[in-house]
Amino acid sequence: MSIHHIDQDVFRAVLQQDIDWQPFPAFPPAARLAVMVGKPQEPEPYVVRVKLPAGERIMPHRHREDRVYTVISGVFYVGRGDEFDESKLEAYPPGTVVVLPGGTSHFHWAKSGEYVTQVTAIGPISMEYLDPRNDPRQA
């Protein structure tokens, strides 16, 4: 008897052209999220991709869950801290893997152009802005 991981009971592949990019209520309106594997809203493993267009920022926030980011394309600018501070941004090129422990305050900026990251974590997916005024869900 074999035991399968969540959403892995049949062989399948998601091709680049078949990725279903959707708005995500916790993101700025121009950002997009695509569910690749799993059900992020459930307490199970998931893989999502995040696309942030050039110039967009995601203001300081944190996640309950530990996350592993893989930079797929573009340059992923991320800074740690409770306030957006350009001097704290670190640039990560495609192929980089970034480990972000749950509860770490951080922010993103698509400073040099659009980027796509892949996030692997165990749900449920969460996002808490440090300043509620930055949360698009409060608009």
Our estimate of the beta-strand percent is 35-45%
- For this structure, the CATH topology is Jelly Rolls
Give the mean pLDDT.
Answer: 94
Helical residue percent? under 10%
Q: By CATH's scheme, which homologous superfamily applies?
A: Jelly Rolls
**Which CATH-level-2 architecture?**
Sandwich
Main sheet record: 5 strands, antiparallel
**How many domains comprise the coordinates?**
1
Give the class from helix and strand content and strand pairing.
mainly beta
CA-to-CA gap between the ends?
A: 50 Å
Any idea of the CATH class?
A: Mainly Beta
Q: What is the approximate shape?
A: globular
Strand segment tally: 10
Query: Would you list the SSEs in sequence order as H and E?
Result: EEEEEEEEEE
Strand order of the largest sheet: 1-2-9-4-7
How many helices? The count is 0
Keywords:
about 140 residues, Jelly Rolls, 5-stranded antiparallel beta sheet, about 40% strand
